[in-house]
Design a protein that fits this description.
Layout lengths: L5 H18 L6 E2 L2 E2 L5 H13 L12 H7 L3 H24 L2 H9 L8 H30 L2 H14 L7 H25 L2 H20 L1
Helix pairs in contact: 1-2, 2-6, 4-8, 4-9, 6-7, 6-8, 6-9, 7-8, 8-9
Length: 219
């Protein structure tokens, strides 16, 4: 890190903290008998890092541009990625429910918000979680790591950590199946962000995928 500026060193350190936190779910840490989900703290680190470093390239809207949002949604490649994401959501949930009945219970254990019966509260939680994760993992982590390595490794690295952050104990087959599709979803979010450089776009995709999962869950 000798050749890095102070700002870049801070980015590397913060990205390193997010990486370390993502692995904590694998340790099985508990408090008062309940799983201690420290991996979720990576989102708060990423949020703080994004807002602390935003504007270093001369623009306060870098990675989160409201004005360009609507226009970017007209991009056919972006719309194709949205469609692919929603298809994958239906396929992953439908196949999991059909061939691995325990997958639904595993999903419930991983996503507490799916048990929320109050629709406005559910929508708010889905939006808050999705926006926080997209700012942290795409607008900060993916964007910064793609400056340190080629885009493809950055996308894979980001998505692998994102998937690890969603790890919940269970039977090996169900856990691997769940993480595989979390990884695939993350790759699609990452491609949308790469195309638009706008976390509002990847947020909308993330929110819609989570909303569709919730609808399927309650059917």
């Amino acid at each position: 890190m000798k050749n890095l500026t102070g700002a870049k060193k801070a980015v590397v350190i913060l990205a390193g903290i997010m990486t370390a936190l993502s692995f904590t779910n694998l340790l099985g840490l508990r408090m008062n008998g309940e799983p201690l989900k420290l991996a979720g703290l990576s989102v708060f680190v990423g949020l703080a890092a994004y807002f602390a470093t935003r504007g270093t390239n001369g623009t306060k809207t870098e990675g989160l541009d409201t004005k360009k949002f609507i226009g970017q949604l007209r991009d056919k490649k972006v719309l194709l990625l949205f469609a692919l994401l929603l298809v994958m959501t239906v396929v992953s949930y439908g196949a999991g429910k059909l061939w691995m009945p325990e997958y639904v219970e595993h999903l419930r254990a991983r996503t507490d918000f799916l048990a929320v019966a109050d629709l406005p509260k559910l929508l708010l939680e889905l939006a808050v979680f999705a926006l926080g994760e997209e700012i942290a993992w795409r607008a900060f982590f993916q964007k910064q790591t793609s400056k340190l390595m080629p885009f493809a490794p950055s996308l894979i690295f980001t998505s692998a950590l994102f998937a690890l952050g969603h790890f919940t104990t269970g039977s090996a087959g169900v856990v691997l199946y769940d993480l595989l599709f979390v990884f695939i979803d993350s790759v699609i979010y990452g491609l949308i962000f790469r195309r638009t450089d706008n976390a509002w776009c990847s947020f909308l995709a993330h929110f819609l995928a989570n909303l569709l999962s919730s609808v399927l869950y309650f059917l």
